[in-house]
Design brief:
sterol biosynthesis, signal, transmembrane helix, single chain, transmembrane, 5 helices
Length: about 140
Amino acid sequence: MSRFLNVLRSWLVMVSIIALGNTVQSFRDHSFLSEKLYTGKPGLVNGLQARTFGIWTLLSSVIRCYCAIDIRNKTLYNITLLTFFIALGHFLSEVFIYGTAAATIGVLAPLMVASFSILGMLIGLQYLEVETTLHNKKRN
């Protein structure tokens, strides 16, 4: 396996672990979301919304961790990539469309993580294609 894919796997595990922490915070105290993420309209954040955010974050975390374990699974890889596009779209829409989030470090951090992850995973696709081609040539 290429060095890049190993780094990408480590990145996915790290992002997954951080997401687990965010999940716990979302369930423990919903003020976490109103103080760190949805600062534009903190009054809209309630316990139900925080738990929904926590479940979404947990699901993304599990998908990303499984991708790190089985990074050659193209379907899982594409679903994982999609989780980052969804997160990017969500946070951008909350800042620029709905106004519920402001461009604070609490929002910029997940935007940067999603952006770097998308870039890394798109580059990783090229490495996976090369490995698949080499593997197929060895079999023939």
